[in-house]
Give the backbone structure.
Amino acid sequence: MLRAKEAHQKIYQDRRWKDLRALKYSDNPVCECCKRKYTEHIHHIIPFAQFIDLDYDKALEYAFDYDNLSSLCEACHIEVHKFMNMELEDFELLLEVLEEVDSNFNEYLLEVYRKNLEISVC
Ligand SMILES: [Zn+2]
Ligand SMILES: [Zn+2]
């Protein structure tokens, strides 16, 4: 079995990833979060790395799933990752606040948050 770091690198060097990323860049050239800046990064909504040690096939599934990708500018990408590392309690508090605010950024975060909650059973 591959170690997580090697597996991660292997996925990013995979031809399938390169094609998928190119397709995503051409389909969504503008950041899906702020909808203002051009895309600099392709982000996985459900992080595939969490499955590498448990179930490598599942990790591959999430890594190469077009619907699991988001085009993000660098600033939003950093924010999204901070948000993803929050504790569930803090997530829930944040959710209440976000629901009262209407902006592209918050809508995007809400969607990402919900998708991650659905799968995070462990
Ligand atoms: Zn952005
Ligand atoms: Zn990311």
Observations:
- Strands lie at 41-44, 69-72.
- The mean pLDDT is 84.
- DSSP finds six helices and two strands in the chain.
